[in-house]
Amino acid sequence: MPEMPRYRGLRRTPNRAALMGAAEELFGLRGFANVSIDEITARAGVAKGTFYNHFADKADIANHIALEIRTGLRERIGEMKSTSTDPARHLAIAMSLFLHLALDQPNRALILVSLINDPTDVNALMNAPVRLTLHRGEARGRFRLASIEASLIMVIGIVSAGIRNLIEQPTRAPSSRITDLVVHALRSLGLEWDDAHAIAAESVGQSSKARS
């Protein structure tokens, strides 16, 4: 196996960022289970003791990577959804941006769906925005839910499976596939077909423009 180059960002970033970048690269190439802390530190060009100055263990750095990815996406979601007060549109925008990550940064997308802790826990901190959107949608009569927990599991399940599908089964029309996934999520939450399709198409279009 040819020797891998050292992480290029080392000279320009502090040690923590170098470790994060190296871990993200290695997890994306080989998967979380197949990467050791020794490999991460070697890739980042820092001593092993430096790793433990910043992270408790391999799972800790993985969770920080996943949190960083989701935080960046949340910022973009907040910018896009500010033009509407409709919870259905907010959810469609969020789903679309997460799914588009599979097209723009597939390694980051796979890391996100593989490493984030408690992805279906209704009380997990990173799921709070989705939970709040579902609550607001139900309160305003936009959503008809059997339960918040079941709805949250459904939405996250569609996004996680959709990301893997877009990466593993690429299509010439990814926007159409993303639109279909968002439509089915909105339909499952109680929206009528025409309403769900119009919101999904608009949100996916917004997300596509935001990528360029």
Q: How would you portray this structure in words?
A:
With 212 residues, this protein is mostly helical. It has helices spanning 15-30, 37-44, 48-54, 58-81, 87-104, 106-115, 128-139, 148-168, 174-188, 193-211. Helix 1 crosses helix 6, helix 5 packs parallel to helix 8 (148-168) and helix 5 crosses helix 10 (193-211). The model is unreliable at 5-12 (pLDDT under 50).
Q: How much helix, percentage-wise, in residues?
A: over 70%
String of helices and strands: HHHHHHHHHH
How confident overall, as mean pLDDT?
86
Number of helices: 10
The total count of strands amounts to 0
Low-confidence parts: 5-12
For the CA atoms, what is the radius of gyration? 19 Å
Percent in strands:
under 5%
User: Which structural class do you get from the secondary structure elements?
Assistant: mainly alpha
Shape: elongated
How would you characterize the largest beta sheet? none
List keywords for this structure.
mainly alpha, elongated, 212 residues, single chain
Would you spell out the secondary-structure blueprint of this structure?
Layout: H1 15-30, H2 37-44, H3 48-54, H4 58-81, H5 87-104, H6 106-115, H7 128-139, H8 148-168, H9 174-188, H10 193-211
Helix pairs in contact: 1-2, 1-4, 1-6, 4-5, 4-6, 5-6, 5-7, 5-8, 5-9, 5-10, 6-8, 7-8, 8-9, 9-10
